[in-house]
Amino acid sequence: GTDGRVNIWKSGDKGEKRSDFHVGRGGRWEGQVPPLPSDLAEVKSHDGDGFLPKPTAKELAEFEKLLDQVKISEGALKTDGFGENPFYHCLVAEIPPESREPQGSTVVGYGLYYFTYSTWTGRNVYLEDIYVMPKYRGQGIGSKIIKKVAEVALEKGCSQFRLAVLDWNESAMDFYKARGAKDLTVAEGWRFFRFDNEAMRELVRM
Predict the structure, then answer these.
(1) Considering its fold, how many domains does the chain have in total?
(2) Residue 176 falls in the annotated catalytic set
(3) Which keywords are on file for this protein (predicted)?
(4) Catalytic pick from 110, 113, 131, 176?
């Protein structure tokens, strides 16, 4: 996961215009890819069969310059997301088999979210990760994932859809602001704190 930081990368190549923002490393995919109509990419809930976010989460962490913080195993991801008591939920963006390359996956992006609770506003949803494979970026898939998370939140009676962005990632902040999100650090002065594993151990020993 991104440890709560949702990061959207916008291509910085001169002369290149994109219709969407996208998550991942700042490198550009080599080679030409025929445009994929966004309505061909279906975003739906995922049951854990055949796909885990581990490899793509590592790419996201590398983009964030936080690769050393990725500690989780694929086994833990599968148990925590697709076991009897899931800690998170996963959406996947899939394309038709005929649109993929030979031996390629039909899963071209994902969103990872979980539910939280506020004594002020009740049910909330928190978006932990959003990722689209490099060759499928700029085609509206990331926007469809975010929209689907909002739909799930409303269906579950959530009053808020929360996420966090690294302070240097201005493209991500602009992307969310343009869609109605509020920067709580600026607007309300909130700062988020974290106890890591060692800090928790020290805390219980106090």
Answers:
(1) 1
(2) yes
(3) Acyltransferase, Transferase
(4) 176
